[in-house]
């Protein structure tokens, strides 16, 4: 009896297991067929990463038909539960993907491919899906409302596609969602208030879309939110005060929208906040004093708004602040005393790296805490009304890379302290009341790319150290070899332009206008082959313009007006295309430019022969004269040499005429010119051995003489 019962139990177990195996195998075959059908629909011909996706030739119920060993496919209990095909060069649509064949699929990553078309509504049948990533493809159309059926979804990434339309309110049904990323699409319309139902959501990325309308107050209900990126959209209206309830928030980005109104004081309650960016909006009113309670804040960007009033002194409490940008607002003084500081005592924690308050209405002095801020790398105070002694400001900031104090009322003289910034790349002190001369030590900032000292009251000469390379001081390079922009205009510099400035080989812009510079334009400046803009106007420069400017092919703009310069202008595009305003006010410039007199032709020869004849004369006349003198001298020696006379008496007049004299008598200037052209290959640059202000010197070996050197004059007027 017991044996019969055991046999019966065994039979039941066998039937159950066999039935289960048949069911699993049946599902597995269905999944395999569905994947093969989708593979066939893809446009790529080789499917190199999907070569393992093939059906076995055996019976369909055989376990060999399982796709569990295929590339990108993972199974659980014989059923496909993970599909990871990220960055697999897939090219096609999801139209032939049979979603209903994958009842156990929990993870699907198809990101970074070339998939296009719409997201099929049938995707809502993946009821067990936890993770879905279709990012970085070319999907278009709307987000299907059926996506709200994926109630087990934890992560939804649809970023960097071409999706449009509005965010479906059905997304608010995804109560398990912790990570929602829809950025960099063309989504439009308002944010659905139903997003406030996503109480588990920790990260929300909606930036770089065309979303509009007000930010719904219901966003304050997403109490577990850690990161909120809603920047670069078209949101309007005020910032809802309910955002102050997001106590776990570390990042809040609302910049580059059209938000208006006051900044809510409630934002100051976000004790975990580290990164706050509200810039590029239409926010007005004052900066909330409650921001001083954001004890974890490292970045605060409020620039390019319409904020007014003073900068709250409470910001000095932010010990971890590294980046503070308040520029392009209407911020003004804290009190009526213009000689006190209107900036809070920042950098108390010694961590501030970037500080900008430019384009405001601030007055007073720079606070001592900023002057002593050794961590500061970038500081912009320009276009305010700050005062103070320039020699005392920011002298203890050795890590400065960028400093702009321009368009203020700073005074005093530049000191050697300003040469102690080895990493400095931009120094702009333009339009202040700085006096005195430029100290030579200012040239110690060897990384400097841009220097602007224009519109001050500086005097003296321009230091030669600006162009000095590997000076005599051991271990110190006194040079600006990385300088791209130099502006010393509107000062009182005198004496000559130092020739050392011809070593600033990376310079693209040079403005020395409106000074009292004298002497000639140094020919060394024509070594600046990177120069694009040159302004030497309104000085006392004299003499001729170096013709070496003709080799500066990158020069696009030049202004030499109001100098006593004279002579022909160089035949380069910058000079030939210059307006008369850029050339006027000189002593006697000439050239083929509208508004200038043509240069005088030294003879009545036609233009087309002037260049050739000038070259022939400059070569033939000196060379012919030298040969003539040599022949005459040889003849005289022959006449007065007693031995020669005796020989002639004895031998009679049977000798032929002297060959040297014969060669002179038959000298052909045109033939020699042709020989020179041939020997120099029509004055090729490889035969040029030097250049001067009036011509180029060439070396040639002529058939009838030894190696000779000759000068080819620059023409006054070229063929037109």
TrEMBL record:
Cited Pfam families: LRR_1 (PF00560), LRR_14 (PF23598), LRR_8 (PF13855), LRRNT_2 (PF08263)
Cellular compartment(s): Cell membrane
Ranges for domain Disease resistance R13L4/SHOC-2-like LRR: 221-432
One MF annotation (Gene Ontology) recorded for this entry: receptor serine/threonine kinase binding
UniProt GO BP: anatomical structure morphogenesis; defense response; plant organ development; response to other organism
Any single Gene Ontology cellular-component annotation: plasma membrane
SMART domains: LRR_TYP
Lipid bilayer topology: Single-pass type I membrane protein
Binding locations of ATP: 711
Signal peptide boundaries: 1-26
InterPro entries: Kinase-like_dom_sf, Leu-rich_rpt, Leu-rich_rpt_typical-subtyp, LRR_dom_sf, LRR_N_plant-typ, LRR_R13L4/SHOC2-like, Plant_LRR-RLKs, Protein_kinase_ATP_BS
TM spans (from-to): 615-640
Domain Leucine-rich repeat-containing N-terminal plant-type, residue spans: 31-76
Keywords assigned: ATP-binding, Cell membrane, Glycoprotein, Leucine-rich repeat, Membrane, Nucleotide-binding, Repeat, Signal, Transmembrane, Transmembrane helix
Protein name as it appears in the record: Uncharacterized protein
């Amino acid at each position: 009896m017991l044996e019969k019962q055991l046999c019966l139990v065994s039979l039941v177990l066998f039937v159950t297991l066999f039935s289960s195996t048949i069911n699993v195998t049946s599902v597995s075959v269905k999944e395999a067929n569905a994947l093969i059908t989708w593979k066939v629909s893809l446009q790529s011909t080789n499917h190199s990463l999907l070569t393992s996706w093939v059906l076995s030739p055996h019976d369909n119920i055989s376990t060999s038909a399982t796709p569990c060993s295929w590339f990108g496919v993972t199974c659980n209990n014989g059923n496909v539960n993970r599909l990871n095909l990220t960055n697999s060069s897939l090219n096609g649509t999801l139209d032939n993907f049979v979603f209903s064949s994958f009842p156990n699929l929990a993870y699907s990553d198809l990101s970074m491919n070339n998939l296009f078309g719409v997201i099929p509504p049938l995707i809502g049948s993946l009821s067990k899906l936890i993770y879905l990533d279709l990012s970085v493809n070319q999907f278009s159309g709307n987000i299907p409302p059926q996506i709200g059926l994926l109630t087990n979804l934890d992560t939804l990434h649809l970023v960097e596609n071409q999706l449009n339309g509005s965010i479906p309110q059905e997304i608010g049904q995804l109560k398990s969602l912790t990570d929602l990323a829809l950025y960099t699409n063309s989504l439009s319309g308002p944010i659905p208030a139903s997003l406030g139902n996503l109480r588990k959501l920790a990260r929300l990325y909606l930036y770089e879309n065309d979303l509009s309308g007000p930010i719904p107050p219901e966003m304050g209900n997403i109490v577990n939110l850690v990161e909120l990126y809603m920047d670069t959209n078209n949101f309007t209206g005020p910032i809802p005060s309910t955002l102050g309830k997001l106590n776990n928030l570390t990042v809040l980005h609302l910049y580059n929208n059209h938000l208006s109104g006051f900044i809510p004081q409630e934002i100051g309650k976000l004790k975990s906040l580290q990164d706050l960016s509200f810039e590029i909006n239409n926010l007005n009113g004052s900066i909330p004093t409650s921001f001083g309670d954001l004890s974890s804040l490292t970045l605060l960007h409020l620039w390019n708004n319409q904020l007014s009033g003073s900068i709250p002194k409470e910001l000095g409490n932010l010990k971890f602040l590294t980046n503070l940008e308040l520029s392009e607002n209407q911020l003004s003084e804290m009190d009526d005393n213009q000689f006190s500081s209107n900036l809070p005592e920042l950098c108390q924690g010694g961590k501030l790296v970037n500080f900008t308050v430019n384009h405001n209405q601030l007055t007073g002095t720079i606070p001592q805490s900023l002057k002593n801020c050794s961590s500061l790398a970038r500081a912009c105070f320009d276009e305010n009304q700050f005062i103070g002694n320039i020699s005392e400001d920011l002298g203890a900031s050795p890590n400065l890379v960028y400093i702009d104090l321009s368009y203020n009322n700073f005074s005093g003289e530049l000191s050697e302290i300003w040469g102690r910034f080895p990493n400095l790349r931009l120094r702009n002190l333009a339009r202040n009341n700085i006096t005195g001369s430029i100290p030579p030590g200012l040239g110690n900032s060897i990384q400097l790319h841009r220097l602007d000292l224009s519109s001050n009251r500086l005097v003296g000469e321009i230091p030669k150290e600006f162009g000095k390379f590997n000076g005599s001081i051991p271990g110190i390079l006194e040079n600006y070899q990385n300088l791209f922009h130099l502006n010393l205009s509107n000062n009182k510099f005198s004496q000559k332009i130092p020739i050392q400035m011809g070593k600033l080989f990376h310079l693209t812009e040079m403005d020395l206008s409106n000074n009292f510079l004298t002497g000639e334009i140094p020919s060394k400046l024509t070594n600046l082959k990177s120069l694009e803009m040159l302004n030497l106007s309104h000085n006392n420069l004299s003499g001729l313009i170096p013709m070496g400017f003709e080799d500066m092919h990158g020069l696009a703009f030049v202004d030499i007006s109001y100098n006593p310069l004279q002579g022909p202008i160089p035949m380069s595009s910058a000079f030939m295309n210059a307006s008369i305003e850029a050339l006027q006010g000189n002593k006697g410039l000439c050239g083929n430019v509208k508004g200038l007199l043509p240069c005088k032709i030294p003879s009545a020869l036609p233009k087309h022969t002037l260049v050739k004849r000038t070259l022939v004369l400059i070569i033939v006349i000196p060379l012919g004269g030298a040969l003539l003198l040599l022949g005459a001298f040889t003849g005289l020696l022959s006449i007065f040499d007693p031995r020669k006379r005796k020989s002639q008496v004895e031998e009679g007049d049977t000798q032929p005429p002297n060959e040297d004299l014969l060669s002179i008598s038959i000298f052909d200037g045109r033939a020699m010119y042709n020989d020179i052209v041939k020997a120099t290959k029509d004055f090729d640059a490889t035969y040029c051995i030097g250049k001067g202000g009036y011509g180029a010197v060439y070396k040639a070996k002529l058939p009838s003489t030894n190696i000779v050197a000759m000068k080819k004059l620059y023409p006054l007027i070229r063929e037109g």
